[in-house]
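Hi everyone,

Forwarding the result from last night's run.
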Amino acid sequence: MSSKKIVSVEHAPQAIGPYSQAVVTDFFVFTAGQIGLDPATMELVPGGVDAQTRQVLTNLKHVLEAAGSSLDRVVKTTVFLTDMAHFAAMNAVYAEFFPQNPPARSTVAVAALPKGALVEIEAVALV
């Protein structure tokens, strides 16, 4: 029988709907999508897609660590962008957080994201 543990961490934005920041199973952590919210203010960080991507990945780092994992254990991410013209800027920041052996990734364009965010990223990682 597989186990399921809900993760909630103060160093990342609290859920803005009926979902968990992450769920841990026997072998994997599945994170909710993170947007560039400052956990202290619950407002998007200023500075465009670069700053939002940095905040998103920082938020993901905190969620993964609370779940007993880390960015270097991520096996798959999905990136959602409201404008593919932001791909290069997002990709440059993303590369800072995954400098070696990056996870598999899909990047898709979407019509809109919560709170007017420019980027959202979700991850699957090993426990």
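The longest helix spans residues 48-66.

Cheers,
N.
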